[in-house]
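Researcher: Please predict.
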Amino acid sequence: MSQSYNRGLVEDFGRWREFSAGMWAWVFHKFTGWVLVGYLFTHIAVLSTALSGPAAYTGTIRTLEGLLVVRVLEVGLLAVAVFHILNGCRLLLVDLGVGLERQDVSFYASLILTGAIVVASVPTFLAGVSL
């Protein structure tokens, strides 16, 4: 008679070293999706200042544009969005049966391409910010 043993969430999470590339792709895709949802609500909150009038909205935007931390967060948002898009395209191809045997390589390629796009964009994002 075989009895199953439930090790619990803590022990299961402790096996993170055994995560494959596919598991990391799943974790990153879920994480970036939630970050994008959070950004959506933040974006709506900033846009809602327009309800107070054009002067309030303009003041909010000028204040945010001058902050270095906002520019850094914008670079992070770009990284999140680009990875989510590239990994989503990768998943679409996998669902269509393309590249099933090379999923790990396509995941690493999406990470590298995301990094290259983000690094190339940093000068654009930081232009005009006084340090």
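Model: The domain at 21-126 is CATH 1.20.1300.10 (3 helical TM bundles of succinate and fumarate reductases).
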